[in-house]
Each structure stands twice: as C-alpha cells, then as structure tokens.
Amino acid sequence: MVQGVIIDNDGCLININPATGDMISKVKCTTPEQLDVIIDTAKSSQKEWRKKSVEERVDILKECIKELTDVSDQMIQLIVQEMGKPIAEAKEEMEYAVNDQDAYFDILLESIKPKKYGKSTVVRHPYGVVAIMSPWNYPLGEIMLLALPSLASGNTVIVKPSEVVPETGALLVKTLQKCLPPGVLQVAQGAGSVGEALVKHNGIDLVAMTGSSATGRKILEAAAPQLKRVILEMGGKDPMIVCADADLEKAANDAVMYSLSNAGQVCCSIERIYVAETVYDKFQVLAKEVAKDYKVGNGMETENNVGPLVSMMQKEHVKNQVEDAVFKGATMLHQSEIPNDVSKNESCFYPVTVLSDVDDTMKLFTTETFGPVVAIAKFDGSEASAVRLANDTEYGLGSSVYTQDTEKANRIAELIDAGQVGINCYPIEFMGVQCPWVGHKHSGFGYHSGKDGCLQFSIPKTIVSATD
Ligand code: NAD
C-alpha cells in the first residue's frame, strides 16, 4: 500500500495529521543496536513469562484491558489525529479493542489449554519472541488482534507500529506495559526497514504482519533462510454480488456504507460491486442517492463521516485509479465536495466518488483501491457469472452476495474463494468472536481470531508418558 513516510536527518519519523498537514510529533526510529537490546530483553523475559499458566497470563491481560479503558479518550483523539478517521469510527475501534474481550479470552483459554488423550498430553508450546508489524488503517485494533493471542500463548512481543501512526502504537504498548512484567511487550519504531531487520534477526521466532500483499511477499522471502514461522493478513479486493431479486435498497445502502467506511481504507472494503443487468439502472440511482449523505472533512468534527486519506501518496494512488477508470469509459455518477477552507495545500481529502460501468480493464477493479470510491459494474445476473466475477482476483478476503433466494445465496457463498462471505450483509457486521479472520489466496498466509486463530501463536507438542 502507498504511504507518505518522511524520515528526517536525525532518523525521526515526521508524524503528520492528514486532515491539517500539521506535524503531530517526531518519533525516533529504533536503531539496529537498540533492536538487539530489545530482542535480548524479550528473549530473557520470555523464560519467566512462559512459566506462568495460561490462566495467569490471561488474568494479567484482563488487567491490561482495564488500563486501556482508562486511556480511551486520549487514544481516540490520537487515532483521529494520526490516521484521520472520523471520531465515531475511532470510538468504535476503541470499543472493539476493549469490549467482548472476556468472551475472546474464554475461547483462548479453551483453545490453548492442554488436551489429554490416553497416555498422551498435547500441550501448546510458545514460539518465543513474536515480532508484530501492523498497518495504519486500524492503528489500535490490528495490534490488539495479534498481541493478545501472542502474549496469552506465552510468547513475548515486539510491536512495530506502522510508520504513519507511531504514537497510537506507542501509547498502546505503554499502557499495556503497566500490568505486564518488564520486557514482555516492547515497541520498535520505524519504517519497513525496521520491520525487515526484525524479520531477519535470528532472535525473532514468529513474525505476524498485517499489511499489504506486497509486504507479505517480502517478509516471506526474508524469513525463508531461517524457515521462520510467519502469519500474514494482507490486502483484499472484495466483491459484492447484487442479484436481480435482492432487496435493492438494503444492497445500495450497504454497498455505499462499506465502500466508504474509514474512507475506504479497510482491508475488507467493498471494492467491486456487480449488479444484475435487470436492476442495474435502479441500483445506480439508489447508490448515488445514498452517497450524497456522506460528508468529507476533518474527522474531529462530528458531522463528517468520511475523513481524509492517510497521506498525500495514498490520495494520488486513489486519484490515479479513478482517472484511469474514467479515461477507459467508466461513468462518473457522483463526486462530493471536499473541504475548501483547508489552509495548507497538503490536505489529504479525496471526494466521495461513485462510478458505474467499471470493468476489469481498469485498475479500479484489479488493484486494491483503499479510497472512498463506490465502483459498480453490470453482469448478466447468472449464478455462474456471479461466482466467476467474484473469484476473478488474486485476493480472497471478504465478499458478499445479496439475493432473497437463500438456496442460491448458499450455492454462491460455497463457491466464492474468500475467507468471509456475507449473505445479505457485510460479513464483519455479524461475525461472532468464535470466528477466525482468514484471507484466501494472496490475502492471507495463516490467520487470527476465533479458536483457529488462537492456535496459530503456539505450536503443539505431544508428551507421552508410560507411567501415567
Ligand atoms: P504495509 O504493507 O505497507 O505495511 C504493514 C507493516 O509492515 C508496517 O508496519 C510496515 O512498516 C511494515 N513493513 C513494510 N515493509 C516491510 C518489510 N520489508 N519487512 C517487514 N515489515 C515491513 O501496509 P499498510 O499500508 O500499513 O496497510 C494497508 C494494507 O494492510 C492494505 O493492503 C490492507 O488491505 C492491509 N490490511 C489487511 C488486513 C487483514 O486483516 N487482512 C487488515 C488491515 C489492513
């Protein structure tokens, strides 16, 4: 994905507010020498941390969640400042990070506790030191998703937050550290090169990255010589299928909402909307009407429900995709206003954009967009075409199908090659805490969340006792 990272001559990240262009802070990048020290500390702390029972570790993590709740206002402000999302969405991210964790911890305990089979006991063995590389789009939530199961499984953790949102990651680590033994959780700051140094360091035992598929590939290559364990949650190009018999108002509403959520900067954003030809015209009218209710502006102001893009480079990337689509024949149905009172030219706002007649010759349908764009195409309405078009991508993260025919919906859902499929909904809307978060094809390599996800952060070991 495209970022706007600036590092000054003193080796500091220049942390910019994308809504105003103002500098928030300078954050010192971790040097290779400092990384050695951090990793040594993590190694020695892990010896004691792994000796605690999983119940003890989870009790400590529950205390960490309470600490996090205490800084929620500060965290929400920081997320909006660094990343730009509307304050309501930052609050949701905070709530997601602290609510329902007891239910998740129950699943975690159940998943990783020892299991006895006759004379054999299968225990879960921690990997050791886990390096977590996180993206900027959910600067708090994405770290939590990987850090909690890593720590509960008996690993120690080094978090490298995205270079675009370093302070949110730093505040999170500082807050959780209050309840954790020294050295169990630490932070390293910097751009991709610091992540790469972590991946290549022989003190790191497991690498867990959430980010783009391009970075995932680089990490796999860097981890290969040491056959290092790797978990990758990567990009998406999620399809939405709207059949002729769908509830069109709901479909149009969801299509717009989940194309524009977080200004479209969501791994499972709806990025390709295929509408049956008999309802295509009506759908376009509905989608355009819904999109008119979205207002772009500074996320700190509550009337704005679409914030800026995270950086100028990200804005350029989205602008290029839209221009390419229009040049190749897409129809511009709607483009919103953007704030015109921004004092600096540096603002990252991009208008809410609704395009129809999009096709697979356009970058908008082949490359992850990550912007506030609703991209609509027509299809013949058949099940075979729905499945073919949905799967016509290297990605396989989320997807959805809208139809009132339940059997047809299930047949299509069965054949879509994606980790999550929503039937008449956006999958994330109703996913239970028991469900894993999975990327098929180039969207994932390993996974997290739910019972299956918890198991990824430790390795089974069978102890067979003749005397038992
Ligand atoms: P990115 O790939 O640029 O960076 C992700 C993290 O990896 C950052 O911390 C970055 O510094 C680090 N990194 C970069 N190069 C590295 C290298 N060579 N070695 C080790 N670490 C390196 O991603 P981004 O722009 O921060 O985030 C947006 C991307 O994340 C999108 O593609 C989005 O779809 C994806 N994402 C996926 C999920 C999911 O659950 N599948 C969730 C959120 C975001």
UniProtKB/TrEMBL annotation:
<dbReference type="InterPro" id="IPR016161">
    <property type="entry name" value="Ald_DH/histidinol_DH"/>
</dbReference>
<dbReference type="GO" id="GO:0016620">
    <property type="term" value="F:oxidoreductase activity, acting on the aldehyde or oxo group of donors, NAD or NADP as acceptor"/>
</dbReference>
<keyword id="KW-0560">Oxidoreductase</keyword>
<dbReference type="InterPro" id="IPR016163">
    <property type="entry name" value="Ald_DH_C"/>
</dbReference>
<protein>
    <submittedName>
        <fullName>Aldehyde dehydrogenase family protein</fullName>
    </submittedName>
</protein>
<feature type="active site">
    <location>
        <position position="233"/>
    </location>
</feature>
<feature type="domain" description="Aldehyde dehydrogenase">
    <location>
        <begin position="15"/>
        <end position="463"/>
    </location>
</feature>
<dbReference type="Pfam" id="PF00171">
    <property type="entry name" value="Aldedh"/>
</dbReference>
<dbReference type="InterPro" id="IPR015590">
    <property type="entry name" value="Aldehyde_DH_dom"/>
</dbReference>
<dbReference type="InterPro" id="IPR016162">
    <property type="entry name" value="Ald_DH_N"/>
</dbReference>
<comment type="similarity">
    <text>Belongs to the aldehyde dehydrogenase family.</text>
</comment>
<dbReference type="InterPro" id="IPR029510">
    <property type="entry name" value="Ald_DH_CS_GLU"/>
</dbReference>
